[in-house]
Amino acid sequence: MAKTFGASSMTVFNTLKDLANKDQQGFVTEVEFNRFAQVAQLNIFNGLFDELKDAQRMSRAGFNPSRDKSRTKRILEDLSAFSTKIVLGKTNEVFNVSTGPSADPMARLISITTAGSIQLDQSTKKPIEVCYDEEKLERILISDLSAPTEDFPVALISEDIHVFPTSINKIEVRYYKYPEGRSADTGARVGQQPSVYDSSSGSPAVIDFELPEHYTSDLVYEIGKMVGVNLRDTDIVNYTGQEMQARKQSETY
Fold first, then answer.
1. Which of 44, 49, 63, 90 has CB atoms 3.0–4.6 Å from 58's, for a disulfide?
2. HSE of 57 in the Cβ direction (CA atoms, 13 Å)?
């Protein structure tokens, strides 16, 4: 039985084919699908951060449900699939995520700490304040009151990561990576381009989206807009539900 690591590209593709035919828009080809698949996935992924800001504003205003119904909690759970961390050593006085041992491309920074250890059940890591403004950093560096120390370090985020004081030689970076395609059989990464068919053989390639399965309808809608299919929410839900049910039945036997 095939494993499921995210939204099935075959479910999305077959749904789009049915909807395009129903809307008399012609046949959605594999080439068209592959051209838009990753853009659609990135659009939804980036939109999650906007939704998170809205949910947090609603929460501060007292309108966000609590516990399992919390919109903030649901979005953070979905984003957690893209959360990763990397320990970096200094190279030429800077830290660069792209040169790390497991260099997944960074989409959004979460936090930076010094690379400490656990001693007597307590971590020796120190949080590093993040700064994106070079002028602000200059003011911090020359200040007698807020100058960085090893207990209160500061990082400037630009093309590379500059950490002050410069005596810090190793850091741990937590960030959200960009979504990629995943093998439906092994879960192995196959790059940032999800695909449906191997163009050389015409046979199905078992590659799924990395977004969770409940974003299948959103992927159908996003790709459908690019293809030019006139989509309605009821059509998407109905066709997607049928495809997902058929897929689960085929995996059972």
1. 63
2. 6
